[in-house]
Amino acid sequence: MSIRSPSNRQVEAITISHILLLDYTNSFRKILPLYSDKKGGESMSEVKLKDLLKKENIKIHMKADNWEGAVRIGGEILVQNGYVEERFVEAVVQTIKTIGPYMVIYPGLAVPHARPEYGVKKLGMSLITLDEPVNFGSQYNDPVKTIICLAPIDTTSHFKALELVLKMIHDGSLRGIEKAEDIDEIMKRIH
């Protein structure tokens, strides 16, 4: 399907219903061994969400006027903690402006990211929850209350990270994270 991006540029896009996420999770599991990457003696297939999403990268009850502000909050956490350079945040914002809200992968959840060459220093994630949800322009998945920014170090490591996020959706952890009153409560919900 072809759509018009916010910048009025025609781009190719595929719309995926969140009902199909289980099928995609199973597909990720099949292809992950093909992309297994040894990092410090540990295979990416052995990595858990808690390995990628550290406590210092989580903030709750944040305030943002719009999707761009929310993405910048999540991205700045990664900048401050040494995962990415500032240009990574700019690349994420520009990608959404150019291509549209494809990073809103599930009702209430966006997973903004950019390519590794835009200043990614190490693999990691940040998570923010918003006091008031924001709209990205996603027909089916707005408004967004939870944003998980992903910093991929290569073109394959993010497959495992996305699989872990999908697992969190399917086991119900996402809804608990949205309602969490403190970061320790979130840490208990991620595996």
UniProtKB/TrEMBL annotation:
Where does it localize? Cytoplasm
Identify the main location. Answer: cytoplasm
Per the record's keyword annotation, is Signal included, yes or no?
no
Name the InterPro entries for this protein.
Ascorbate-PTS_EIIA_comp, PTrfase/Anion_transptr, PTS_EIIA_type-2_dom
Q: Where is the PTS EIIA type-2 domain?
A: 51-191
GO MF terms held by the record:
kinase activity
Q: Which GO terms describe its cellular component?
A: cytoplasm
Q: Which PROSITE patterns match?
A: PTS_EIIA_TYPE_2
Q: Which GO terms describe its biological process?
A: phosphoenolpyruvate-dependent sugar phosphotransferase system
> Which keywords belong to this entry?
Cytoplasm, Kinase, Phosphoprotein, Phosphotransferase system, Transferase, Transport
What does this protein's UniProt record list under function?
The phosphoenolpyruvate-dependent sugar phosphotransferase system (sugar PTS), a major carbohydrate active transport system, catalyzes the phosphorylation of incoming sugar substrates concomitantly with their translocation across the cell membrane. The enzyme II UlaABC PTS system is involved in ascorbate transport.
- This protein's name: Ascorbate-specific PTS system EIIA component
What are the top taxonomic ranks of the organism?
Bacteria, Bacillati, Bacillota, Negativicutes, Selenomonadales
